[in-house]
Amino acid sequence: MSYTEEIRNLQETDKKFIWHPFTQMKDWVAEKPLIIIEGRDCFLKDIHGKWYIDGVSSLWVNVHGHRRKEVDDAIRQQLDKIAHSTLLGLSNAPSIKLAEKLIELSPKSSDIDTQYPSLTKVFYSDNGSTSVEVALKMAFQYWKHKGIKEKKSFLSLKNAYHGDTIGAVSVGGIDIFHEIFEPLLFKTFKSPSPYCYRCEFGETYPECSLHCLAVMQDILNQDADKIAAVIVEPMVQGAGGMIVYPDFYLKGVRELCDKYNILLIADEVATGFGRTGKMFACEHEQISPDLLCLSKGITNGYLPLAATITTEEIFNVFLGEYSELKTFFHGHSYTGNPLACSAAVACLDIFEKDETLKNLQPKISLLQKRLNDFSKLKHVGEARNKGFMTGIELVKDKDTKEPYPLEAKIGWKVIHKAREMGVIIRPLGNVIVIMPPLCISEENLIQLLDVIEKSIIFATEEGK
Ligand SMILES: *Cc1c(COP(=O)(O)O)cnc(C)c1O
């Protein structure tokens, strides 16, 4: 078979056998699938040999680049020992080393007088959604063991995204993803999204004095005795459209949780591991949650792994005689997989060795400067970022903030144009996401931003 035939064959076989996630397959089969065969640093190579900038870090997971030697080596070395053994009743060296490192790194409150808990125990699973399921079940069972049976609901935010399994969807708040499953979901309390650009009260920060937080307080005032935990994505609602919180909102949520005796679950699946410019987004407001969910960047985007990290207080409540059945009955086949944990240890070591966070700061400034220029474009409603999490919200009419209708497929038009110019990105509706690996060079970052700017102008002003 010639190489051209082989490519055609792969493309046809993909269409024949694969059902792609979050993809309208009618559109997919009408096009030629882009097949990736290689990666290096912040670049991806397709089957035709064309290279692209990986502008969304392979769906927000890559941190230090593809084919990072240290991570490759760590996995190879572990492969020579053992690929997998279970954490149910046994342990393994990489998962132990990683747990110690995660606890060392986990967000600490800088305020010595604070009541904020510190995190001491790591529970592994394999993806962001399961790390959230674990947190929800732990919070729920915690109150059961404490003898407070009424606390069995959760408070979550509109526009929240916590994953696609049923529990995670129940605490989600994105109508277009979540509405269809409504009959399957458990009921939760929903608080407004701190989405200043489209404030549901029509107010502006800081004159609003965080009206959205006041609504959360009202709910808690009324129903705190029914609520086990509040769950939020710290500082940025990711899949909801890269919605950046106003200052003091997150700290306010922590204070409300303390005041009303409710656990705080911080879902840092997207924001963790340097994405927002600090190791964890909670550090921006010097808070620490009772349960912390981590995944995505944890293995440098190499292998599926997640962790739910919690406090001594919560852990202790599950201790008891075997027959008391206080055990946390949850676990997955691949929990604490040694290959994934070795990749994660290597990934965390690189943060130190490369001074990743320090080197990121000038790139964040560069990005921010360019976003100011983006905001001046005719159809850019808002260009917002927290560190290296960026969203450019396109609008049909800048003055009225009228969104583009779904049929306009405006996000897709932008990313198709960008693809022609050697950049891979993926939109969230009308929001163009820019989330390259943290290791991207300034030169490549400028290249990426140039292409995205041209693509936005093309899709919104020229190529209509
Ligand atoms: C991606 C994401 C999840 C779900 O992670 P999966 O690995 O896709 O299951 C959960 N929470 C947040 C904040 C995310 O961004």
Keywords:
17% strand, 464 residues, single chain, 2 domains, Aspartate Aminotransferase, domain 2, Aspartate Aminotransferase, domain 1, four-stranded mixed β-sheet, globular, seven-stranded mixed β-sheet, binds pyridoxal-5'-phosphate, alpha/beta, 38% helix
Give the uncertain stretches in residue-range form: none
How large is the share of residues in beta strands?
Answer: 15-25%
Q: Order of strands across the widest beta sheet?
A: 4-12-11-10-7-5-6
Described by the principal axes of the CA atoms, the overall outline is globular
How many domains, in number, for the residues? 2
Q: So what's the CATH class of the largest domain? A: Alpha Beta
Alpha-beta content class: alpha/beta
Spatial extent as radius of gyration: 22 Å
Instruction: Could you tell me the CATH topology label of the largest domain.
Output: Aspartate Aminotransferase, domain 2
Main sheet characteristics: 7 strands, mixed
How many β strands by DSSP?
Answer: 17
Give the termini separation.
Answer: 41 Å
Task: Name the ligand types.
Answer: pyridoxal-5'-phosphate
> What value does the average pLDDT take?
96
Q: Report the total helices.
A: 15
CATH architecture of the largest domain: 3-Layer(aba) Sandwich
At the fourth level of CATH, the homologous superfamily of the largest domain is Type I PLP-dependent aspartate aminotransferase-like (Major domain)
User: How much helical structure, as a percent, in the residues?
Assistant: 25-40%
